[in-house]
């Protein structure tokens, strides 16, 4: 595991307490040694962060996090599979993950948000930008330009629409929809019972309940109505 070696430590204990204890603890992960170590020195020189380590991406494991005990993990966006790291390594809700050198396009930023990152800095970001992003992440804030904020809102709206159940079938259970799917495919109650490993009487009850909820009288009519309301989603 690559460690950052610095000679005199500006935050070393001197009998007046350790100033580092009051600063955010930051761990940097990048596969380029000069990149991660140079960034560590630049951030440490700001005097607002404690750099606890600078490691290669392959060394960033749960054991690594436990050893360094960071408040924030900086992830180089060039790391292979870096978007999967927050979910794989998040053992404590207090640990934040921030990506740097991110390409600032809508898709890239949305991917970072969906991956659970707490912030990002683009390829043109400065050391000061990165420090501000780290500090913002620890306060639960995300610093991003208005166009990116707009893209995030649009994405949330799209997700809300895609997850909204059809009000006409919201009263049906998953099992009832499953049974009616098989009805729509032309299967008898006995055939549906065998497929779903339930009793024929249970299938009959599901069909009866569906007809009552939809205020219809024929099973084929109910299956066709559900297919019309759900479209392609009805058949798996």
Would you give an account of this structure?
The chain is an alpha/beta fold and 236 residues long. The protein folds into two domains: 19-145, Rossmann fold (3-Layer(aba) Sandwich), CATH 3.40.50.2300; 174-233, Orthogonal Bundle (Arc Repressor Mutant, subunit A). It contains ten helices and five strands, in the order βαβαβαβαβαααααα. The chain has a five-stranded parallel sheet with strand order 2-1-3-4-5, with helices on both faces. α8 (189-196) packs across α9. It is elongated, with a radius of gyration of 27 Å. The two termini are 47 Å apart. The model is unreliable at 1-17 and 232-236 (pLDDT under 50).
């Amino acid at each position: 595991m690559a460690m950052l070696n610095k000679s005199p430590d500006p935050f070393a204990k001197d009998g007046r307490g350790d100033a580092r204890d009051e600063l955010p603890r930051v761990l940097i992960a990048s596969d380029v040694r000069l990149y991660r170590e140079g960034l560590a020195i630049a951030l440490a020189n700001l005097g607002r962060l404690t750099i606890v380590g600078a490691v290669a991406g392959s060394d960033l494991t749960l054991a690594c996090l436990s050893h360094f005990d960071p408040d924030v993990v900086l992830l180089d966006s060039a790391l292979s599979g870096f978007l999967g790291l927050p979910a794989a390594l998040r053992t404590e809700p207090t640990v934040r993950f921030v990506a740097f050198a991110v390409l600032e396009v809508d898709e890239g930023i949305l991917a970072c948000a969906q991956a659970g990152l707490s912030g990002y800095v683009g390829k043109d970001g400065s050391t000061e930008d990165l420090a501000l992003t780290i500090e913002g992440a620890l306060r639960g804030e995300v610093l991003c330009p208005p166009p990116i904020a707009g893209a995030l809102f649009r994405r949330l709206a799209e997700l809300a629409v895609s997850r909204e159940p059809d009000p006409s079938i919201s009263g049906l259970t998953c099992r009832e929809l499953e049974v009616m799917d098989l009805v729509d495919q032309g299967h008898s109650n006995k055939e549906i019972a065998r497929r779903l490993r339930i009793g024929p009487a249970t299938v009959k009850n599901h069909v009866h309940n569906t007809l009552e909820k939809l205020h219809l009288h024929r099973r084929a009519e109910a299956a066709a109505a559900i297919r019309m309301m759900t479209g392609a989603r009805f058949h798996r």
